[in-house]
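Researcher: Re-running this chain for the archive, since the previous output was lost when a drive failed. Same request as before.
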Amino acid sequence: MDVSIVIVSYNTSSVIDECIESIEKETRCSFEIIVVDNASTDDSCEQIAKRHHNVRLIENRQNVGFARANNQGFEVAQGRYFLMLNPDTVILDNAIDKLIHFMDENPSVGICGPRNVGPNRELQYSCDHFPSIWNTFCSYTNLINRYPNIKLFRRSRMQYWDYAETRDVQKIMGCSLIVRSDLYKHLDGLDNNFFMYFEETDLCFRAIMGGSRVIYVPSAVIMHYGGESSKNQIMNCVINKTVYSYYLSSQYYFYKKNYGYLAMLAIRCLDLCYGLALIAKNTIRRDKVIKTHRIAKGQALCAGAIARHISVAK
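Model: Regenerated structure tokens:
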């Protein structure tokens, strides 16, 4: 079998059917689809069981997170390649076949990913450098937008680049990432300590540190609606502090694991300073919508930065 496709789902009944249908329509190589459901409360599982008899469905009784759920799926997978795919994606123009062909032709490549576009075919920045205090500082101080022509300030999501050519990158977004199955197993899969966020960053980091290449392949195109699971959790809240805390906890764990304790303390201090600045700057702001959102973000940053324990996995 060429590729095992694992889709982690959480309350995505509105989009997952289109995703599965697009795989079946646009893929010629041999494949299997494994859906790992993280205790959805909608009719996702019933919908899959009824409409897609060739899909293997794993139903978790609780939400075990993105990393652990992917590992569950790939543990029973049989393909030469493993494809992590979000349920809010649509395969376009034989994208999976193109990724498989590229990997077959380039044995030094361990991980690759496609060009991601939005519903209106607008480019989505799906590649990035590894996290750094400098990139975060440039984002917090808005140097990214103040000096758009200076590459040093626009490293976040590689915004200085037009995403037009095939090239080595450090990180590819986990919404559509393909990895050699033997490499995935050699790396012991995703780190289960990540509940949400940074799990694919950590996988790419370990792959590159081990000598593998991570490549962006623009000839393969996948449409990504973006954030359906998060949207279902956010609902009408200004900022979902629970989801944001997962992001911060995962960030601090990544720094501590891969860069060391001092680097983790440094990014915490930077987050704390920016959080306090957001609160102070927006306290007297007249626009209530912007004021509420930015103060809430500042409070979430401060809370995450001073949290005693890094707790990312349930």
